Amino acid sequence: MLPKNKPRISADAVEKIVRKHGVTDPVVLVGIRGYYLNSMGKPGVNDRGLYDDMIAVLSPTAYATFNANTDPSIYSPGIATLLPGVHRYRKGRHGISRGAGYPALRPATKGEALPVSRDGRAGTTTGIALNIHAGGRTSTSSRGCQTLHPSQWKAFQALVYEEMSRHKQSTVPYVLTA
After folding, report:
1. pTM
2. Cα–Cα distance, 97 to 122 (Å, whole number)
3. What radius of gyration, in Å, describes the C-alpha atoms of the chain?
4. Hey, which bits of 110-170 come out as E strands?
5. DSSP 97-117
6. How do strand 171-177 and strand 102-107 relate by DSSP bridges?
7. How does pLDDT run across 23-41, given as a tens digit for each residue?
8. pLDDT tens per residue, range 123-143
9. Is residue 3 part of a domain?
10. Is residue 6 situated within a structural domain?
11. What is the distance of C-alpha 68 from the center of its chain?
Protein backbone atom coordinates (compact mmCIF):
# COMPACT_ATOMS: atom_id res chain seq x y z
CA MET A 1 0.00 0.00 0.00
CA LEU A 2 1.26 3.46 -0.94
CA PRO A 3 0.16 6.64 0.85
CA LYS A 4 -1.72 9.13 -1.34
CA ASN A 5 1.04 11.73 -0.96
CA LYS A 6 4.78 11.82 -0.51
CA PRO A 7 5.98 12.57 3.03
CA ARG A 8 5.60 16.24 3.98
CA ILE A 9 8.56 16.84 6.25
CA SER A 10 10.50 20.06 5.81
CA ALA A 11 14.12 20.24 4.76
CA ASP A 12 14.79 22.10 8.03
CA ALA A 13 13.40 19.20 10.06
CA VAL A 14 15.53 16.72 8.11
CA GLU A 15 18.62 18.94 8.54
CA LYS A 16 17.99 18.92 12.30
CA ILE A 17 18.06 15.09 12.29
CA VAL A 18 21.29 15.13 10.27
CA ARG A 19 22.98 17.59 12.67
CA LYS A 20 21.81 15.58 15.70
CA HIS A 21 23.69 12.57 14.30
CA GLY A 22 26.85 14.59 13.57
CA VAL A 23 26.75 14.00 9.80
CA THR A 24 28.58 16.66 7.75
CA ASP A 25 28.59 15.16 4.24
CA PRO A 26 26.98 17.40 1.61
CA VAL A 27 24.64 14.61 0.41
CA VAL A 28 22.78 12.56 3.00
CA LEU A 29 19.81 10.21 3.11
CA VAL A 30 17.45 10.24 6.10
CA GLY A 31 15.02 7.41 6.81
CA ILE A 32 12.22 7.71 9.34
CA ARG A 33 10.78 4.37 10.40
CA GLY A 34 7.12 4.69 11.32
CA TYR A 35 6.62 8.04 9.57
CA TYR A 36 2.94 7.13 8.95
CA LEU A 37 2.67 5.35 12.32
CA ASN A 38 -0.88 6.50 13.06
CA SER A 39 -2.26 6.94 9.55
CA MET A 40 -1.44 3.60 7.89
CA GLY A 41 -1.93 0.07 9.16
CA LYS A 42 -2.68 -0.47 12.84
CA PRO A 43 -2.48 2.87 14.74
CA GLY A 44 0.57 3.16 16.98
CA VAL A 45 2.23 0.07 15.48
CA ASN A 46 5.21 -0.05 13.15
CA ASP A 47 3.66 -2.36 10.57
CA ARG A 48 5.50 -4.56 8.11
CA GLY A 49 4.70 -4.96 4.47
CA LEU A 50 3.62 -1.33 4.03
CA TYR A 51 5.34 1.72 2.60
CA ASP A 52 4.67 3.50 5.90
CA ASP A 53 8.18 4.91 6.35
CA MET A 54 10.01 7.64 4.45
CA ILE A 55 13.42 8.44 3.03
CA ALA A 56 14.60 11.96 2.22
CA VAL A 57 17.49 13.02 -0.01
CA LEU A 58 19.15 16.18 1.27
CA SER A 59 22.03 18.09 -0.36
CA PRO A 60 23.04 21.71 -0.93
CA THR A 61 21.36 21.51 -4.37
CA ALA A 62 18.39 19.17 -3.81
CA TYR A 63 15.72 18.06 -1.37
CA ALA A 64 13.07 15.40 -1.98
CA THR A 65 11.06 12.90 0.06
CA PHE A 66 9.94 9.42 -0.92
CA ASN A 67 7.62 6.74 0.43
CA ALA A 68 9.65 3.84 1.73
CA ASN A 69 9.77 0.68 3.78
CA THR A 70 12.56 0.26 6.34
CA ASP A 71 11.42 -3.09 7.75
CA PRO A 72 11.35 -6.65 6.41
CA SER A 73 8.11 -7.44 4.57
CA ILE A 74 7.12 -10.18 7.04
CA TYR A 75 7.96 -11.55 10.47
CA SER A 76 10.13 -14.63 10.15
CA PRO A 77 12.59 -16.20 12.61
CA GLY A 78 16.08 -14.83 11.98
CA ILE A 79 15.11 -12.15 9.43
CA ALA A 80 17.15 -8.96 9.82
CA THR A 81 15.95 -5.44 10.62
CA LEU A 82 18.50 -2.65 10.15
CA LEU A 83 19.11 -0.82 13.42
CA PRO A 84 18.71 2.96 13.63
CA GLY A 85 21.94 4.91 13.25
CA VAL A 86 24.26 6.21 10.55
CA HIS A 87 25.13 3.71 7.83
CA ARG A 88 27.27 4.32 4.74
CA TYR A 89 26.14 3.26 1.27
CA ARG A 90 27.74 3.28 -2.17
CA LYS A 91 26.50 3.04 -5.72
CA GLY A 92 26.04 -0.58 -6.71
CA ARG A 93 23.58 -3.08 -8.10
CA HIS A 94 20.71 -5.04 -6.56
CA GLY A 95 19.66 -8.46 -7.74
CA ILE A 96 23.10 -9.48 -8.97
CA SER A 97 22.52 -13.06 -7.87
CA ARG A 98 19.84 -13.28 -10.56
CA GLY A 99 21.96 -11.65 -13.27
CA ALA A 100 23.21 -8.15 -13.85
CA GLY A 101 20.69 -6.56 -11.49
CA TYR A 102 19.80 -2.87 -11.56
CA PRO A 103 21.34 0.33 -10.10
CA ALA A 104 20.79 0.56 -6.34
CA LEU A 105 22.69 1.41 -3.15
CA ARG A 106 24.77 -1.18 -1.29
CA PRO A 107 26.43 -0.99 2.13
CA ALA A 108 29.88 0.60 1.93
CA THR A 109 31.23 -1.34 4.90
CA LYS A 110 33.68 -4.24 4.89
CA GLY A 111 31.78 -7.31 3.74
CA GLU A 112 28.67 -5.11 3.46
CA ALA A 113 28.03 -5.80 7.16
CA LEU A 114 25.56 -3.64 9.09
CA PRO A 115 24.12 -3.87 12.65
CA VAL A 116 20.73 -5.58 12.81
CA SER A 117 18.24 -7.15 15.15
CA ARG A 118 16.73 -10.47 14.15
CA ASP A 119 13.19 -11.74 14.59
CA GLY A 120 13.00 -14.15 17.49
CA ARG A 121 16.53 -13.46 18.75
CA ALA A 122 17.78 -11.15 21.47
CA GLY A 123 20.54 -8.62 20.99
CA THR A 124 22.36 -7.10 18.06
CA THR A 125 24.07 -9.05 15.32
CA THR A 126 25.41 -8.42 11.82
CA GLY A 127 23.46 -8.49 8.59
CA ILE A 128 24.95 -8.36 5.10
CA ALA A 129 23.82 -6.82 1.81
CA LEU A 130 20.96 -4.80 3.31
CA ASN A 131 20.58 -2.74 0.16
CA ILE A 132 18.43 0.26 -0.65
CA HIS A 133 16.43 -0.76 -3.72
CA ALA A 134 13.05 -0.79 -5.46
CA GLY A 135 10.26 -2.64 -3.73
CA GLY A 136 7.29 -4.26 -5.40
CA ARG A 137 3.76 -3.14 -6.19
CA THR A 138 2.08 -5.92 -4.19
CA SER A 139 4.84 -6.38 -1.59
CA THR A 140 7.58 -4.21 -0.12
CA SER A 141 10.01 -6.92 -1.32
CA SER A 142 12.27 -6.70 1.71
CA ARG A 143 14.21 -9.38 3.53
CA GLY A 144 15.87 -6.66 5.59
CA CYS A 145 16.61 -4.11 2.85
CA GLN A 146 15.29 -0.57 2.69
CA THR A 147 12.85 -0.34 -0.23
CA LEU A 148 11.04 2.39 -2.11
CA HIS A 149 7.78 2.06 -3.99
CA PRO A 150 8.58 1.17 -7.62
CA SER A 151 6.71 4.24 -8.90
CA GLN A 152 9.23 6.42 -7.02
CA TRP A 153 12.38 4.29 -7.31
CA LYS A 154 13.83 5.64 -10.57
CA ALA A 155 13.48 9.27 -9.46
CA PHE A 156 15.08 8.48 -6.08
CA GLN A 157 17.96 6.47 -7.56
CA ALA A 158 18.68 9.07 -10.27
CA LEU A 159 18.64 11.92 -7.74
CA VAL A 160 20.95 10.14 -5.27
CA TYR A 161 23.44 9.14 -8.00
CA GLU A 162 23.36 12.64 -9.52
CA GLU A 163 23.90 14.40 -6.18
CA MET A 164 26.68 12.00 -5.14
CA SER A 165 28.46 12.70 -8.45
CA ARG A 166 27.86 16.46 -8.27
CA HIS A 167 29.32 16.66 -4.75
CA LYS A 168 32.08 14.11 -5.42
CA GLN A 169 30.94 11.57 -2.81
CA SER A 170 31.84 7.93 -3.29
CA THR A 171 29.62 7.01 -0.32
CA VAL A 172 26.49 8.55 1.15
CA PRO A 173 25.47 8.43 4.81
CA TYR A 174 22.03 7.01 5.54
CA VAL A 175 20.65 8.22 8.86
CA LEU A 176 17.90 5.86 9.99
CA THR A 177 15.68 6.96 12.88
CA ALA A 178 12.84 5.14 14.60
Report:
1. 0.94
2. 30
3. 15
4. 113-118, 125-128, 132-134, 146-148
5. GGSS-EEEEEE-SGGGEEEEE
6. unpaired
7. 999 999 999 999 998 888 8
8. 999 999 999 999 999 999 999
9. no
10. no
11. 7
